[in-house]
Design goal:
Blueprint lengths: L3 E3 L1 H6 L4 E11 L3 E2 L3 E2 L2 E8 L4 E2 L2 E4 L6 H13 L10 E6 L6 E9 L2 H13 L8 E6 L11 H5 L7 H11 L5 H17 L13
Parallel strand pairs: 2-9
Antiparallel strand pairs: 1-8, 2-5, 2-7, 3-4, 5-6, 5-10, 8-9
Bound molecules: inosine-5'-diphosphate.
């Protein structure tokens, strides 16, 4: 089902909708996998309590706080350190195709490799949600290995709501991968789904 996109202001003007705000924290990296495959970028997602992948964030009530203040508060609970997200970090808003009367807001925030590593440490050491709502932060592999390893396999996992689409559009928007690489990763992921029936690709999940 196609998603209905809108600006942040249009979203806030909608009556009778709940708002969910999630952020892709990312940055550049000089690390190399096996000492030879450049990682190039760190992109953080998380394994949620329900076994689905998604971004850090949560529900925000705009009548009580701004979307960004609410997202920063949720982030603190999930990653254990204060990460300030602002209006400038907003990327897109759309009506959820899987949850009735929910608008999902997607944010992106670039950080240094050291800051991202600190978040990964704190997410285990001090985040109140660790081991409960959040089972762990995960890095998105942005490289391609033989037989679909790397990004294609990652994309064949199951994702909450529209987070898979949010990931793809954020990777495109930030130019972390080319349009051709993204198309190829999606193509391989779809092929895996067809050929390996034990892998289930994200269907709209009713987790509202
Ligand atoms: O990463 C995401 N991107 C887009 N929507 C998401 C993501 N994670 C969760 N959602 C949607 O937003 C709703 C609320 O998100 P979440 O479960 O993180 O909030 P909560 O911890 O405040 O309940 C979920 O029920 C789901 O429909």
């Amino acid at each position: 089902m196609a998603e209905e996109k809108m600006t942040r202001d249009e979203a806030l003007a909608r009556q009778g909708y709940r708002h969910a705000c999630h952020v892709m924290l990312y940055g550049d990296s000089s690390a190399k996998l096996f000492g030879k495959i450049p990682i190039k970028h760190i992109v953080l997602m998380q394994m949620r309590f329900d076994g689905l992948l998604g971004f850090p964030g949560g529900l925000v009530n705009p009548s009580e706080e701004t979307l960004e203040a609410g997202l920063s508060r949720e982030l603190h609970e999930e990653v254990g350190v204060a990460v300030r997200v602002g209006v400038d970090d907003h990327m897109s808003s759309c009506v959820s195709s899987s949850c009735p009367r929910l608008i999902t807001h997607s944010y992106i925030k670039k950080m240094t490799e050291a800051e991202l590593k600190e978040i990964e440490r704190a997410a285990v050491a001090s985040a109140t949600d660790h081991g409960l709502e959040v089972l762990g932060m995960v890095r998105v592999p942005l490289y391609f290995l033989k037989k679909g390893g790397g990004l294609p396999y990652f994309l064949s996992h199951s994702f909450i709501s529209n987070s898979r689409a949010q990931l793809l559009s954020a990777l495109r928007h930030c130019r972390l991968l080319s349009q051709g690489e993204l198309k190829e990763a999606v193509r391989q992921a779809e092929q895996m789904r067809r050929t390996h029936s034990y892998i289930t690709l994200a269907q709209p999940h009713q987790s509202c």
